[in-house]
Write a structure and sequence with these properties.
This protein is mostly helical and 147 residues long. The chain is built from five helices and no strands. Helix 1 crosses helix 2, helix 1 runs antiparallel to helix 5 and helix 4 runs antiparallel to helix 5. The longest helix has 32 residues.
């Protein structure tokens, strides 16, 4: 009898699927937190205006959802290397900023996307995304080395 099972661990270069899904969800939450801090710095309390916060964050969450898989942010090799994590997450966030800026410039979302805004978004957003993803990489490496 031939068994026909799909083994998530053998899905190419992508890490185990439930882990990737969890990582993607937390990535999105990190983007929302970053936007929330930005709103707070502009005297808008994100907890007082949750719909506005979500609407403001959505273009950048969409940007991340498009860019991160395309540049390989969920590949096993990225999670096994600090250097790869730095390079891949930086590339993904810069691309996500540009995609989010394009979406934010449309009539569907509030605000515009002048170059100065995109530059600030790209640089400060890395300050949120990189520590989170480096912690994930560190945890992944630590678990791999333990056994």
């Amino acid at each position: 009898m031939i068994e026909s099972r799909i083994h998530p661990k053998s899905v190419g270069r992508i890490v185990v699927e439930p882990f990737v899904l969890s990582l993607a969800v937390v990535d999105a939450l990190v983007v929302v937190a970053f936007i929330g801090v930005g709103l707070f710095m502009h005297a808008i309390e994100p907890w007082a205006f949750p719909a506005y916060t979500i609407r403001t964050a959505t273009p950048f969450v969409i940007g991340w959802a498009i860019a991160a898989p395309l540049v390989g942010a969920y590949r096993r090799q990225v999670l096994e290397s600090v250097g790869r994590t730095l390079a891949t997450v930086a590339a993904a966030w810069i691309a996500a900023t540009l995609i989010g800026g394009a979406i934010r410039s449309s009539a569907l979302f509030p605000g515009g996307a002048p170059p100065a805004f995109l530059l600030v978004n790209a640089s400060l957003g890395l300050g949120f995304m990189l520590p989170w993803r480096l912690a994930v990489t560190g945890g992944h490496c630590w678990r791999s080395n333990r056994g």
